């Protein structure tokens, strides 16, 4: 892969991570653990990184040594980033946000990578100093962050966003202030559910009332009976008068 395209890819990935951390996002433990693995795999086996097992095996002793030292350094920076991330509870799930002071860790990471680029050629480690190792080192950095972040997140007792989504059987957690409602409307409680009109239930009550003799039809029948009997009595009185 051309060097310019590789550099642009790395810059885009880093920029996306920095913006996401600065704005804050729901904590997804699966992503925290899978992202480092994906980045390390890309850095080892794809054209964005070293390019495969053959290239890894062809590394000289100086390249391997510089890569090990650089990996340890960027992993330590990742641990510092994981400890600096703020943990917040929003909508019943755990969120992470990098404070402005956390940008210093990113500057330190960039400085370490720049130092490797400067000293690598003089030490006989041109591969370790090239842009082919940037994605690999970024994955190691994210792994160090996960090592520090995951225990902190579990200690809070607040569920991660992906855990809530799995428990509720949905693909993503609710982003509204109402728990358990994706549309943003409050959930219906027992009282409002009981007070809500139910046409079917009303028809059933009327049917039972008619069968028991207490419904409106039965009361109407009683009234008509009284009117009929009074009419008979009036006819009898008229006949007697005659």
In summary, what is this structure?
Helices cover 68% and strands 5% of the residues. By secondary structure, it is mainly α. The chain folds into two domains: 3-168, no CATH class; 209-241.
User: Any idea how many domains?
Assistant: 2
Stretches with pLDDT under 50, minimum 5 residues? 172-199, 215-230
Query: Shape from CA axes?
Result: elongated
Assembly state of the chains shown: single chain
Classify the beta-strand content into a percent band: under 5%
Overall number of strands:
3
**What is the straight-line distance between the termini?**
124 Å
Number of helices: 11
For the residues shown, what is the average pLDDT? 77
Order of helices and strands: HEHHHEEHHHHHHH
**Helices and strands: which structural class?**
mainly alpha
Cα Rg: 37 Å
Could you characterize what this model shows?
By secondary structure, the chain is mainly α. The protein folds into two domains: 166 residues, no CATH class; 33 residues. Helix content is 68%, strand content 5%. Strands 1-3-2 form a three-stranded antiparallel beta sheet. The chain starts with a helix and ends with a helix.
Name the features.
242 residues; mainly alpha; 68% helix
Q: What topology does this entry show?
A:
Layout: H1 3-23, E1 25-26, H2 29-45, H3 53-57, H4 61-84, E2 86-90, E3 93-97, H5 103-119, H6 126-129, H7 134-156, H8 161-168, H9 190-195, H10 199-212, H11 216-241
Antiparallel strand pairs: 1-3, 2-3
Helix pairs in contact: 2-7, 4-5, 4-7
């Amino acid at each position: 892969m051309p060097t310019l395209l590789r550099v642009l890819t790395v810059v885009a990935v880093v920029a996306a991570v920095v913006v996401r951390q600065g704005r804050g996002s729901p904590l997804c433990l699966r992503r925290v653990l899978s992202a480092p693995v994906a980045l390390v795999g890309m850095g080892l086996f794809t054209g964005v990184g070293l390019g495969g097992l053959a290239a890894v095996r062809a590394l000289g002793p100086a390249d391997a040594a510089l890569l090990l030292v650089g990996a340890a350094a960027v992993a330590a920076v990742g641990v510092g980033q994981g400890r600096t991330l703020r943990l917040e509870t929003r909508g019943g799930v755990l969120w992470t946000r990098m404070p402005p002071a956390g940008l210093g860790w990113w500057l330190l990471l960039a400085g370490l990578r720049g130092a490797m680029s400067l000293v690598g050629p003089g030490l006989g480690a041109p591969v370790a100093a090239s842009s082919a190792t940037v994605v690999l080192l970024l994955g190691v950095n994210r792994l160090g962050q996960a090592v520090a972040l995951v225990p902190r997140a579990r200690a809070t007792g607040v569920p991660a966003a992906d855990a809530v989504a799995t428990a509720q059987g949905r693909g993503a957690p609710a982003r509204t202030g109402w728990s358990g409602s994706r549309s943003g409307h409050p959930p219906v409680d027992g009282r409002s559910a009981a007070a809500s009109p139910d046409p079917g239930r009303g028809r059933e009550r009327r049917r039972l009332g008619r069968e028991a003799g207490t419904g409106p039809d039965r009361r109407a029948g009683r009234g008509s009976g009284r009117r009929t009997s009074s009419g008979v009595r009036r006819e009898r009185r008229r006949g007697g008068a005659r």
